[in-house]
Design brief:
With 420 residues, the protein is an alpha/beta fold. The protein has 2 domains: 241 residues, Alkaline Phosphatase, subunit A; 151 residues, no CATH class. It is 31% helix and 18% strand. The chain is built from 15 helices and 13 strands. The protein has an 8-stranded mixed beta sheet with strand order 9-8-10-1-11-12-2-13, with helices on both faces. Strands 3, 4, 5, 6 and 7 form a 5-stranded antiparallel beta sheet that branches. Strand 3 and strand 4 form a beta hairpin. Helix 5 crosses helix 9 and helix 11 runs antiparallel to helix 12. It is globular, with a radius of gyration of 22 Å.
């Protein structure tokens, strides 16, 4: 945990290597008829074998009952308190594609979407249109102008784009246009100014009144942009509308490498996860567009770093689509790569997830997520399968994800004794 007050006194360098494989949306939930989750239904012999020789458990990404976004979910795995270090999706996406984000800028993650003749959403991701189709649409949006605010739109990947606002007196404290459900129109943006103890009473430019004025100005600018965007896209079905969420400014977080005395690297095909890694100071290694390319990149750079964050996306995408079989196949496809990871002989291998994405919900959920830790100190503990039901009986128990890094560091011989 990066805020552990004695961390700097305990961390120590060693030659050992830690590999953290984050399986996006790893956790699931049982179907009503089969009473099995995607992991329970999947054939994953390599993961099962690992579970039999590892320390196992379940992690709570944020708090019991809270369904986290990918940002908070990942921050917990990296040892950051997700309730303290909040990063909006917009900043993650922008930094992930190396879009300039200066202090005072505000960014949002955008989705191309589909609406019917009445303007109600029928698909929040426009059928997951390809980058080939989406990139020209982002260019069309980039031509929109709003008085008093500089607009920039840049395509990210597939149906995603980033909107950046630049100007005086802007704020991230506004609501989103994405209602997170179908059958309703996109939302109007409103100021959403929270009470901040010790800030609201200061009257030094950060007062509630000043923040409300900035939020109102930003909301008006976004609504003006959204109205023009709807007109620009109206004939481009299935991407005949767009949604905005995850408003954020440039964040400041403690550095991952200096805090843990590590030389960390990140390998991720999706821009948002590269953005998160950059924000906390990991070196982002360029890679290809799929997990096979990520594993090849890991092997090529294995000698250069003592900590690697490796990201696997397909399980989450299938869960969000509500496709049980597709998520099961994505987990089985991941299993085939496990021998290649073991061939690199990591001293500590952590396999975990940033959140659960059960296909029966077609969304992120609050369910605990399987976590496995393998090192020379783990011999197995009676867990026979890599799934939610079996791993709840492991020695790690059910614990907050922000403590995973301390476990990994200890198993890697990178933490000294605490106290005399």
């Amino acid at each position: 945990m990066i805020d552990f007050p004695y961390l700097s006194e305990l961390v120590q360098k060693s030659d050992s290597k830690i590999l953290m494989l984050v399986v996006d949306g790893l956790g699931g939930a049982p179907q009503r008829q089969s009473r099995r989750s995607e992991l329970e239904a999947a054939r994953v012999p390599n993961l099962d074998r690992l579970a039999q020789e590892s320390a196992c458990g379940l992690s709570t990404p944020v708090l019991p009952g809270i369904a986290p976004g990918s940002g908070p979910g990942h921050l917990g795995l990296f040892g950051y308190e997700p309730l303290k270090y909040l990063i909006g999706r917009g900043a993650l996406e922008a930094i992930g594609i190396e879009m300039e984000l200066l202090p005072g800028d505000v960014a949002a993650r955008g989705n191309f979407a589909t609406v019917d003749a009445q303007g109600n959403l029928t698909d929040r991701r426009a059928g997951r249109i390809s980058s080939e189709l989406a990139a020209p649409l982002a260019e069309k949006l980039n031509k929109i102008t709003v008085p008093g605010v500089e607009i920039a739109v840049k395509h990210v990947k597939d149906y995603r784009f980033v909107l950046r606002l630049r100007g005086e007196g802007l704020s991230e404290e506004i609501t989103e246009t994405d209602p997170q459900r179908l059958g309703v129109p996109p939302l109007q943006v409103e100021p959403h100014v929270r009470d901040i103890p010790g800030v609201d009473a200061q009257g030094n430019g950060h007062s509630r009144e000043a923040r409300t004025l900035a939020a109102r100005k930003t909301a008006n600018a976004v609504n003006a942009f959204a109205a023009q965007a709807a007109e620009v896209l109206k004939n481009d079905a299935p991407a005949n509308q767009m949604l905005l969420r995850g408003w954020s400014e440039l964040p400041q977080l403690p550095g991952f490498g200096p805090s843990y005395q590590l030389n960390p690297a990140a390998i991720a095909a999706y821009p948002m996860y590269r953005g998160l890694a950059r924000i906390i100071g990991m070196k982002v290694i360029p890679t290809g567009t799929d997990f096979a390319a990520e594993v090849a990149t890991l092997k090529e750079h294995w000698a250069e770093h003592d900590y690697f964050y490796l990201h696997y996306k397909p399980a989450d995408a299938a869960g969000e689509d509500g496709d049980f079989e597709k998520k099961k196949r994505a987990l089985e496809a991941l299993d085939a790569f496990i021998p290649a990871l073991l061939d690199m002989k990591p001293d500590v291998l952590v396999i975990c997830g940033d959140h659960a994405t059960p296909s029966i919900y077609a969304a992120h959920s609050w369910h605990p997520v399987p976590v496995l830790l393998r090192s020379q100190w783990t011999l197995g503990e009676g867990v026979d399968r890599f799934n939610e039901r079996s791993m709840r009986n492991g020695s790690l128990g059910t614990f907050e994800a922000k403590y995973i890094m301390l476990q990994a560091l200890s198993h890697a011989g990178k933490l000294a004794k605490f106290g005399p």
